[in-house]
Amino acid sequence: MSEKIRIGTVGLGLMGSSIATCILAAGHEVTSLVLSISEAKTAQKRIFNFLSELSAEGLLAGDPEEIIEKITITDDVSIFAGHEVVIESITESVDAKKDIYRQLETVLSPTAIIGSNTSAIPVTILQEGLAHPERLLGIHWAEPAHITRFMEVICGKDSDLKYAQQVVQLAESWGKEPSLLRKDIRGFITNRIMYAMLREAFNLVENGFATPEDVDRSLRNDLGYWITFAGPFRFMDLTGIPAYLTVMKDLFPELDNTSKAPQTMENLVSAGAKGVSNAQGFYPYTKESAARWEEKFIEFSFDIRKLAAKYNEEFK
Ligand SMILES: NC(=O)c1ccc[n+]([C@@H]2O[C@H](COP(=O)([O-])OP(=O)(O)OC[C@H]3O[C@@H](n4cnc5c(N)ncnc54)[C@H](O)[C@@H]3O)[C@@H](O)[C@H]2O)c1
Question: Which of 15, 74, 118, 276 to mutate to test the pocket of ligand 1 (most atoms within 8 A of CB)?
Answer without folding.
Answer: 15
